[in-house]
Amino acid sequence: xxxxxxxxxxxxxxxxxxxxxxxxxxxxxxxxxxxxxxxxxxxxxxxxxxxxxxxxxxxxxxxxxxxxxxxxxxxxxxxxxxxxxxxxxxxxxxxxxxxxxxxxxxxxxxxxxxxxxxxxxxxxxx
Length: 126
Fold this sequence. Notes:
40% helix; mainly alpha; globular
């Protein structure tokens, strides 16, 4: 799969493709996607930032009732069930940066992504 993964194409994507897209997104974005008051992570933030799972959801696919819910919970509300465990692990990496100084986000994410790749038998090269 060479195009951007969205909910529509997620079931056809491999775990490596999902990991690569999310890893590139997080390392490029460099900061977590937060709600307006900064108290919690969100899939799609008002400022355009997206969390690990949010970068797999095209804007037209996003449902507001998913905010504040885990990916596993969102799948029960219409998101594809493909790669649930991997996406939840990637969400945890994203959420680990909540409330830490910006200078510490990328090192924390890099380490977390490496752990996910190792645990899921994926390449962390992305």
